[in-house]
Amino acid sequence: MNFKLFDYDAGRYAFSNETALCISEQRHLKEFGVYNFTLNANGTCNWDIDKDGVNIYYSLLSVFLLVALILSILKISLCAWRSYHYEEEVLENVAGSGTTAGTVQQRNRMRSLDVFRGMAIVLMIFVNSGGGDYWWIEHAPWNGLHLADVVFPSFLWIMGVCIPISIKSQLSRGTTKAQIAFRILWRSIKLFCIGLCLNSINGPNFENLRIMGVLQRFGIAYLMCGIIHTVFAKKDHLEPQVTWRRALYDLISFKGELMVAFALIVIHLSIVFGLHVPDCPRGYLGPGGKHANASYAGCIGGATGYIDLQILGSSHIYQHPTAKYIYDSKPFDPEGIFGCLLTIVQVLFGALTGVVILMHTDWRARITRWLLWSMFLTIITSILSEFTKESGVIPINKNLWSLSFVCATTALAFTVLSILYYIIDVRHWWTGYPFEACGMNAIIMYVGHTVMHKMLPWHWRIGAMNTHFLLLLEAVWNTLMWIGIAIYLDHINFYYSL
After folding, report:
1. Which of 6, 177, 223, 477 yields a CA-CA distance of 20 to 30 A from 123?
2. Where are the bilayer-spanning segments (predicted)?
3. What's the DSSP call for residue 21?
4. Bridge-partner residues for 46, per DSSP?
């Protein structure tokens, strides 16, 4: 923080061109610290530390150790219970109980996909619970990439991975493309409607009901990507005999989807940098408000914000964007309509990953291709953002769902899946517990934690709740509760999908 002291009314905003009576250099304020900012009679200022604060990451360490201790005790207890009932379980399996087929089928699944999805939903619940109020866990106010910003794109990407696998399975069973398209449409409608219902959780007032949201964007992206891949999908793939064509066959078979993705990128960039927005500079990507000395106060998001505003109306978009609390910006929907263009591109990248899984059985071929895509997209991100947070041609921005944001988060997803796949499915060093169970019931966890966000025993309040320790403890408690629910549902073999 910078502190400035004025001896006159500087107005609502005091920028660098305002003459201040006294200015302090940037200060890092610590939790529980006591500070004095004093104006002396001669016009100078003093900054005194009466009591130094504490390291805020001690809370992170203490909660981590506490959770690790609890989980260790539970794991030891579970192992003891299983050891006690070992003979009974062996007899049931030998007798061919009803769960044996399901267990075998589950083991044949690519576990890393469920683990990736499970890690994403667990992280989403954690950050939605506040994440201990650490700045790097919360969403970035505008430009930048924080931990919370990678959750939603990771979910979309892994959804795309499963699209070609599902469609290939349906085509192999003799399902027509028209039937597949109808199922995709029906599932998309259900996703959109559930999201719309969740938006009315504080009251179904149609005058100010938010139209778009997380599940709504899921529905739109799934509809478009599912239909696109269904159109280009083939029931059988004949592997080419030429070496170089065989090595690139996944790209060759996916060329139609890649052409659509490239067209969407061109359309998106043409509108962002070519559309004339009233009272805004062409190609503006800022948060409006007091950004740039309040020169473009009503221009939040530039063309993105303007298009959503014209289609949805000011009463039906998100009223509390992250930029509002720092830049004093107007309402803006980070899950708006225009951002769906590049969201579809991100899901298509996920579909490409699924095609690689279908066409390459060797784990080295899969990981090599995923890491090459990760490197390529990282280079694109670096060029677009110019290795900076604010000064690039297209900064990394989750609110705008910018091209650099899509490339950065997709590159990260490629890398994470490569690591999980190697550890879980190739080397079998980890079973994916407990995230696999979470990934297999992700929709239940998402809807459940949204509906029960303010209810006991998932959430609680003790006093002011103004320390990192209490906020982190409460967020971790809520997250562990939902992990426990997912493990129980997996134990009783209950799985729900739309």
Report:
1. 223
2. 56-74, 115-137, 143-163, 184-202, 214-233, 254-277, 336-358, 370-388, 400-423, 430-449, 469-489
3. S
4. 38
- pLDDT tens digit string along 161-184? 999 999 998 998 888 999 999 999
- For residue 271, the number of C-alpha atoms closer than 13 Å in the C-beta half-sphere is 19
Contact (CB, 8 A) for 184 and 163: no
Instruction: For residues 79 and 459, give the distance between their C-alpha atoms in angstroms, rounded to a whole number.
Output: 30
Distance CA(349)–CA(264), nearest Å, equals 13
Report the alpha-carbon angle 47-43-40, nearest 5. 50
Is residue 277 pLDDT above 80, yes or no? yes
| 345: CB partners within 8 A, 6+ apart | 261, 264, 265, 406
Query: Model confidence at 293, in pLDDT bands (50, 70, 90)?
Result: confident
The pLDDT of residue 104 is above 50: no
Q: What letter represents residue 294's amino acid? A: A
Tokens of 6: 């004025």
- Of 85, 139, 146, 276, which residue is the catalytic one? 139
pLDDT at residue 106 greater than cutoff 60: no
Q: Per the domain annotation, does 66 fall within a domain?
A: no
Mean pLDDT along residues 353-367: 91
Of the three residues 383, 398, 432, the one that is the final residue of a domain is 432
Using the structure block, give the residue that is written with the tokens 């027509």.
176
What's the token pair of residue 4?
């400035």
User: Which residue would you say has higher pLDDT here, 191 or 21?
Assistant: 191
Does 27 lie in the same domain as 160? no
Tell me, yes or no, whether 464 lies in a domain.
Answer: no
Pairing of strands 22-23, 34-39: unpaired
pLDDT at 100: 39
CB 318 within 8 A of CB 210: yes
Residue 139 annotated in active site: yes
Task: Return the HEC string of 246-267.
Answer: HHCHHHHHCHHHHHHHHHHHHH
Is 437 a residue whose pLDDT tops 80?
A: yes
Instruction: Count the domains in the chain.
Output: 2
Q: Which domain holds residue 11?
A: 2-51
Are 180 and 315 within one domain? yes
CB 113 within 8 A of CB 165: no
- Alpha-carbon gap, residue 234 to 213, rounded angstroms: 33
Contact 52, 33 (CB under 8 A): yes
Beta bridge partners of 45: 39
Beta bridge partners of 39: 45
DSSP 427: S
Over residues 485-490, the mean pLDDT reads 90
